[in-house]
Amino acid sequence: MKRLNLADSREFSPIAIRSLVLHDSPYFKIINFNLGAGQLFPVHSHQIEGQLSMLVLEGEGEFLSDTASQPARAGDLLISEISEPHGVRAKTEMRLLVTIAPPI
Asked: Per the domain annotation, does 4 fall within a domain?
């Protein structure tokens, strides 16, 4: 069993998105992304089978696709095929917990 405290990964940079791989196994990967206000995680996709989830831990922004955007606030969870275009734009400091299964 593995226990993590997400408060330990609360680091922001005015220059770049901070990321920390919290778990990586043959079954799934969990990454904490911390975006500063105004930072963009560009829309992208992965040409593999699998799913991803993006949970907003804190802050506000937008979930992005290649054609639309949706509000993203603390507690919001987005689930999609990993092959679907996805990205995030932060309005405030924003923390995301991303799960990818199977891991890439």
From this structure: no
